[in-house]
Hints:
Blueprint: E1 4-9, E2 14-26, E3 31-34, E4 41-45, E5 48-54, E6 59-64, E7 67-72, E8 75-80
Parallel strand pairs: 1-8
Antiparallel strand pairs: 1-2, 2-3, 2-5, 4-7, 5-6, 7-8
Amino acid sequence: MEYLHLNIISPQESLFKGEVSEVTLPGSVAPFTILPHHAPIISSLEKGAISFVVKGGGSQSVEIDGGFVEMSNGNVTVCIC
Length: 81
């Protein structure tokens, strides 16, 4: 199975850094999911939950008030408010 490298950061701290098989984000228009081999994307995020499936199984989520995401070359960086 292939994985994405997910990094969720806020101005104060790093909230998560690790390998995930998918990540679902609260996009400005609608929620969307990023999987391995997703096309590069930059998007703003609304208030909601980021949910992701961690390598080895198990899901986690982080509540956010907004932010943005960049995905390129298997690296997903989420900057949150």
